[in-house]
C-alpha cells in the first residue's frame, strides 16, 4: 500500500474536509478526491460518510486511521534509522517515557551527545508505562523509560540512579496542606485523582494500601492535566514529586506520603534488538550518565 495515500488519508481525516486537506497538502482538490476513492477501492470499503460540510469517518475509516498512524510512524522511524548508517552519526532518537524528574538523566545524556553529534534530534513521547511498552513492542520507539522493574526475559535495561518520591498535590487552602506528610488515613473517603497504573502497581506497596475505586474521581496520564483538575477543586492528585508547579503563585501544594513511597526508573529496550549505529552510540552515553561518569 502506498504510504503517500495513507499520509494524505490521515490529513483528510484530521481536517474532515477535502478542500482544507488539499490546501494543507498543496495538491489539487480533484486529485485528492481521486486518491481517497482509490484507497476505498483498494480496501473494498467505505472510509467516509460524506455529510453536507464535512467528511465523517466510518468504523472502517477509524480502523484505517489507527493502522495508518502506526504504519507511517514505523516507515518514518525506519528511514531515520537508515539515515544514521554512515560515518557521521545523524538522525532521530525516539524515546517513550513515563513522567519522572529522573528523565533529566536522559536529557543530560542527549545534551552531551548532541554537542558531538549536531545532526541528531530527540523525539519524546510521554505516557504511562503500559502505553510506552506497547510503543516499544511495535518498534515505534527505540528506547523506553518506565517506572516498573522490567521483565528480564524480554528487555535489556539500565537502572537510572535516584528515586521518584510519591506525594499528594492539593490546593493551598486544603486542610491537608498544613500537614508535613500525608498518611493512609488522611486519604480516607477523599476524592482522588490518580493514574490507573499506580492504582494497580504502586500504591498497593504503600502500607498495603489500596485506594478504593469508589474514591477515584479521575484518572490521568500526564501530570499537567491532573494539576488542572486539582486547581479546579476536583480532588487530590497522587503522583511523583517535581512534576507539577507548586510555587506560591500556582495555588497548589505538594506533601510527601508517610511512610515514604518511592519508584525507581529504568531505560529498557527489546532483547536481540538490532539498532542503528546512532542508537547504539547514544545508549553508551546513557550508560555513562547512569554510571555518573559524565559531568555536564
Q: What's the CATH architecture of the largest domain?
A: 3-Layer(aba) Sandwich
Task: Give the CATH level 1 class of the largest domain.
Answer: Alpha Beta
Number of domains: 2
Number of strands: 11
Protein described:
The protein is of the alpha/beta class and 296 residues long. The chain folds into two domains: 77 residues, Arc Repressor Mutant, subunit A (Orthogonal Bundle), CATH 1.10.10; 205 residues, D-Maltodextrin-Binding Protein, domain 2 (3-Layer(aba) Sandwich), CATH 3.40.190. β1 and β2 form a beta hairpin. The N and C termini lie far apart (46 Å). α1 crosses α3. The chain has nine helices and eleven strands.
Offer a few descriptive terms:
296 residues; alpha/beta; Arc Repressor Mutant, subunit A; D-Maltodextrin-Binding Protein, domain 2; 2 domains; 9-stranded mixed beta sheet; two-stranded antiparallel sheet; 39% helix; DNA binding
Topology, element by element:
Layout: H1 3-15, H2 18-25, H3 29-43, E1 48-50, E2 55-57, H4 59-83, E3 91-97, H5 103-116, E4 120-126, H6 129-137, E5 143-146, E6 155-171, E7 192-194, H7 196-202, E8 216-219, H8 223-231, E9 236-240, E10 252-256, E11 262-270, H9 277-290
Parallel strand pairs: 3-4, 3-5, 7-8, 7-9
Antiparallel strand pairs: 1-2, 5-11, 6-9, 6-10, 6-11
Helix pairs in contact: 1-2, 1-3, 1-4, 5-9
Task: Give a concise summary.
The protein has 296 residues and is an alpha/beta fold. Helices cover 39% and strands 23% of the residues.
